[in-house]
Design a protein that fits this description.
20 helices; mainly alpha; five-stranded mixed β-sheet; 448 residues; single chain
Length: 448
């Protein structure tokens, strides 16, 4: 009952956070709108063409995540971005089940409750739950079930849960599947471990070397450019404070007990590629990049504590002390990530521009072509062809409608100043104002 209780409570908590952020216009086209366009096309039996990324842009050429097609039947029944947000919430919450169940078996009921709280409130899961939708939501439960199976000695089950990760994202074959194969090898399942390593490495090589360039409009793998060209020591020591902070917090939420288990090795490849990148978004604890690390370090914590208790049965005080420290660190970090918004007034207060936004959106007919501000994109992608306003020249996109919210909190790709300049240029090029109020501007292309 404890694992089920955590799944139910966490699903509700993550869903409320994600939906409230969306309905108050704090979600965005980059990335919720992007994934909705892809899954909307899957639901219509079309390839995942994403207009937000470019004309005819196939999202399978960006990252290799065919597992997203499994959401198409659900989206066909409920065509809304909220469908994706709830699906992600369920996936993240379900990942707690095997961890709590393993903890209950190995550490007792109190240990299970502590583990459930540490995992459910962890910064990596909380940040992912409150930041739009991403394909890694599928990876989190698969990693959790795989590592818990490994810890319980169910080695074939561990391999079976790990294999689908190659369909979630192209790097996971090397960074997770192959590492789980190594752990299986160390547990004595040598043939199975070697086979999993080969499959993981081969899958990543196939996806990065052939499939992604084949499907990418530029004919290559876009994310090679994210890796720094500088020598690795220079890269790793660049912004060392932020990187050390991320590394420390990742293991501090386990009271550093994760370091007592070889399972912790599964976290190293992901940490290495993130810290080897020139992109500062990868270095910190924001966004969704630490989500897949959470089941790894928590599984390692359970295994590490179980090993310690077995080796030192008389040191009974150690486990509750470590869990108390881990829980304190986890709870103390909550205000710094998205779950902290559940206690904020902003999340529960209606957007002061909501009435104007809704009035303007209602004027846009279904099936129209629209260029919109980032925060307005996911409120249109279920019923229109949408591009991000200001990302590409207006003459190239040529939308029927333009809707802009310059006061949006989401300006990831197009800055507020650039958006305002291009809005003025649109008016000068023949677009006419159809609605204006509280900063919201709706333009309509003049009929020829």
């Amino acid at each position: 009952m404890i694992p089920l209780a955590f799944v139910v409570v966490l699903t509700a908590m993550y869903s409320v956070l994600a939906i409230r952020r969306h309905v108050t216009y704090h979600s965005a086209g980059w990335d919720l709108g992007i994934f909705e366009q892809a899954i909307r096309n899957y639901a219509a039996f079309r390839p995942p063409i994403v207009a937000l990324k470019g004309a005819g842009y196939n999202l399978l050429g960006d990252h290799f995540h065919p597992i997203l097609v499994t959401l198409a039947p659900l989206y066909r029944l409920f065509p809304s971005p909220i469908t994706l947000l709830i699906a992600q919430s369920v996936l993240l919450a379900v990942s707690a089940w095997p961890l709590v169940a393993w903890a209950q078996r190995s550490l007792g009921r109190r240990g299970a409750v502590a583990v459930g709280m540490i995992y459910g409130l962890s910064f990596g899961i909380g940040s992912a739950a409150g930041f739009d939708f991403h394909e890694v939501a599928f990876a989190v439960p698969l990693i959790s079930f795989a590592l818990c199976s490994l810890g319980l000695g169910r080695l074939r089950s561990a391999a079976a849960f790990a294999l689908p990760l190659v369909l979630v994202k192209e790097d996971l074959g090397v960074t997770v599947v192959a590492v789980i194969g190594v752990l299986l090898f160390l547990r004595g399942a040598r043939r199975l471990g070697i086979a999993l390593v080969i499959v993981g490495v081969a899958a990543t090589a196939l996806e990065v070397g052939i499939l992604l360039p084949l499907l990418n409009s530029a004919g290559g793998y876009s994310y090679w450019a994210k890796l720094s060209a500088h020598p690795l020591p220079t890269v790793f020591f660049s912004s060392a404070g932020e990187k050390i902070g991320t590394l420390a917090l990742t293991f501090a939420i386990t009271g550093f007990a994760a370091l007592l288990s070889p399972i912790a090795l599964a976290a190293l490849p992901t940490l290495l590629w993130r810290f080897a990148s020139d992109d500062p978004n990868y270095w910190g604890t924001d966004f969704h990049y630490s989500a897949i690390l959470m089941p790894i370090v928590v599984a390692a914590m359970i295994d590490g504590l179980a090993r310690f208790r077995q080796r030192y049965p008389r040191v009974r005080w150690a486990m509750p002390v470590v869990l108390a420290i881990a829980l304190a660190v986890t709870v103390g970090a909550v205000p710094s990530h998205r779950l902290g918004e559940l206690g904020s007034t902003q999340l529960w207060t209606a957007n002061p521009q909501a009435a104007s936004i809704e009035a303007a959106l209602a004027m846009i007919p279904n099936g129209a072509t629209v260029s919109a501000s980032d925060n307005l994109v996911p409120h249109l992608t279920s019923r229109a062809t949408v591009t991000l306003f200001g990302l590409r020249p207006l003459a190239v996109v040529n939308p029927d409608w333009i809707i802009v919210d310059p006061d949006s909190t989401r300006h990831f790709v197009v800055t507020r100043s650039a958006e305002l300049r291009r809005l003025k240029a649109a008016e000068q090029s023949g677009y006419t104002i159809r609605f204006q109020g509280e900063g919201i501007t709706l333009l309509r292309r003049a009929k020829p």
